[in-house]
Design goal:
174 residues, alpha+beta, 2 domains, 6-stranded mixed beta sheet, two-stranded antiparallel ribbon, 33% strand, binds zinc ion
């Protein structure tokens, strides 16, 4: 019992990093976070189930600029915009972020730059960064695949025939 609580605490800790130091020293965080911990995400979700695995890796790009590479994998429950029911959504997002001071961040906006820049921060909240990246990566109008949507099922019933794949899909869910 005690052991379980200890693990839970470890998992829920909000890592704060000094981003330049993190990049300069090639540090890495490899961790899991429950979707429920990401508060800004909640209004886009059907429910807070799911968890995300992320790897944050500090380093330099080929021009010697300090970067953070972030890789996010996992799942969350979005709300289908057709039937308004929950749907499994696989989160898979990779990004490289250039660490900038304010001047170079402003300059970056004017350039055709391959990567996004963020302000170098001595107290960067890693979960905030994670949340920003996930919000950018989510579809604007998520929908079930054709045949798996409950809205489709209603239409099929009216036509007097059901899509056998939709039935299978429902069986798998239950
Ligand atoms: Zn649907």
């Amino acid at each position: 019992m005690l052991r379980k609580i200890y693990h839970a605490r470890l998992m829920y800790a909000r890592p704060i990093i000094d981003s330049l130091d993190f990049a300069e020293n090639g540090k890495q965080i490899d961790a899991k976070v429950p979707v429920a911990e990401l508060s800004r995400l909640q209004e886009l979700l059907d429910n807070p189930q799911g968890s995300l695995h992320y790897i944050l890796q500090g380093g330099q790009d080929d021009q010697g600029r300090f970067v953070l590479d972030i890789s996010i994998n996992g799942s969350c429950q979005l709300r289908c915009q057709r039937c308004l029911k929950g749907m499994d959504y696989a989160v898979q997002h990779d990004a490289r972020l250039l660490l900038c001071d304010q001047a170079s961040l402003d300059a970056l906006d004017d350039q055709e730059e391959e990567f996004d820049g963020i302000l170098a921060d001595k107290n960067l909240d890693v979960l905030e960064l994670l949340e920003d990246e996930i919000l950018l990566s989510l579809p604007i109008a998520p929908m079930h695949d054709l045949g798996a949507c409950q809205a489709d099922e209603g239409e099929d019933k009216q036509k007097g025939k059901r899509n056998p794949f939709a039935v299978l899909e429902n069986l798998k869910r239950n």
